[in-house]
Amino acid sequence: MNDAPLDHAAELARTREFFAVRAADWEVRFPDDGPRYEAAVAELGLHPGQAVLDAGCGTGRALPALRRTVGLDGTVLGLDLTPEMLQQAARAGRAAVAALVVGDCGQLPVRTAALDAVFAAGLIAHLPEPAANLAELARVTRPGGRLALFHPIGRAALAARHGRRITPEDLRAEPNLRPLLAGAGWRLERYVDEDSRFLALAVRVG
Ligand SMILES: C[S@@+](CC[C@H](N)C(=O)[O-])C[C@H]1O[C@@H](n2cnc3c(N)ncnc32)[C@H](O)[C@@H]1O
Predict the structure, then answer these.
(1) What pTM was estimated for this model as a whole?
(2) Which residue from 72, 165, 66 is spatially nearest to 120, judged by alpha carbons?
(3) What CA–CA distance (Å, rounded) separates 160 from 65?
(4) What is the distance between the alpha carbons of residues 200 and 146, in angstroms, rounded to a whole number?
(5) Are 189 and 134 in contact (CB under 8 A)?
(6) Alpha carbon of 50 to ligand 1 centroid (Å)
(7) What is the pLDDT of residues 34-50, one digit of tens each?
(8) N or C: which end of the chain has fewer CB within 10 A?
(9) Separation of alpha carbons 201 and 191, rounded Å
(10) How far is CA 107 from CA 12, 37, 181, in A?
(11) What letter would DSSP give residue 95?
(12) How far is CA 94 from the centre of its chain?
């Protein structure tokens, strides 16, 4: 018997559980990150009227900046696996700037090539199947559209915060991330890993 789907479901459930208990004070812990999210959103080069997904949007910290860049005629979708995170997003008034949807990045309720860009902050390390999930993000993005994988702290600083060191196997290390993205339909165009931020900017090919 093939029990892979069960493992996958169990992993998603674990992730949901992990974030559900952290949702209430998610933004209280790092209140000064706002400008870093603004700067990362700006790197997507979005224009008024365009459509963007915040994948794993959490409490929706990036949603106001995304709305400002695409304007009232644009489309902003905030999708997250954890309902408690989206409840906090709604409490913070972010349902006024984006459609908030509970869902899994591995199976997006979005038409093929419907989006101009995907923003994903702090997401990739939590994905059970990074290659397949990045391919799903590529599916919903038009050719030439962009993906920003962002974190408001660099890899080494984040590892140190958790009492660890980064290892060469780290998914987000450039030599690992570049081929992973390429295999999923993305070309890595920019890679920044400094104490104050991690940003990998990729373009949809094909
Ligand atoms: C580290 S938090 C980042 C939240 C938000 N982007 C931010 O920067 O504040 C990761 C988020 O990804 C969500 N997530 C994890 N796996 C997911 C998946 N497969 N599909 C959708 N969301 C997922 C979690 O529920 C969590 O809210």
Answers:
(1) 0.96
(2) 66
(3) 29
(4) 10
(5) no
(6) 23
(7) 999 999 999 999 999 99
(8) N
(9) 7
(10) 12, 25, 18
(11) G
(12) 17
Ligand 1 pocket test, candidate residues 25, 61, 81, most atoms within 8 A of CB: 81
Question: Letter for the amino acid at 148?
Answer: A
User: Which domains can be identified in the chain, with CATH numbers?
Assistant: 4-22+32-204 (3.40.50.150)
Give residues (CB < 6 A) around ligand 1: 15, 19, 56-59, 61, 79-82, 85, 104-106, 121-123, 126-127
Residues 148-194 pLDDT 10s:
999 999 999 999 998 999 999 999 999 999 999 999 999 999 999 99
Which pLDDT does position 206 carry in this prediction? 84
Predicted pLDDT of residue 132: 97
Buried b (16+ CB within 10 A) or exposed e, 88-98: bbeeeebeebb
Those residues with Cβ within 8 angstroms of residue 142's Cβ, 6 or more apart along the chain or in another chain? 113, 114, 115, 116, 204
| CA 169 from centroid of its chain's CA atoms | 20
By CB atoms closer than 10 A (0-12, 13-18, 19+), residue 68 is middle
Residue to substitute in 126, 155, 171 for testing ligand 1 pocket (most ligand atoms within 8 angstroms of CB): 126
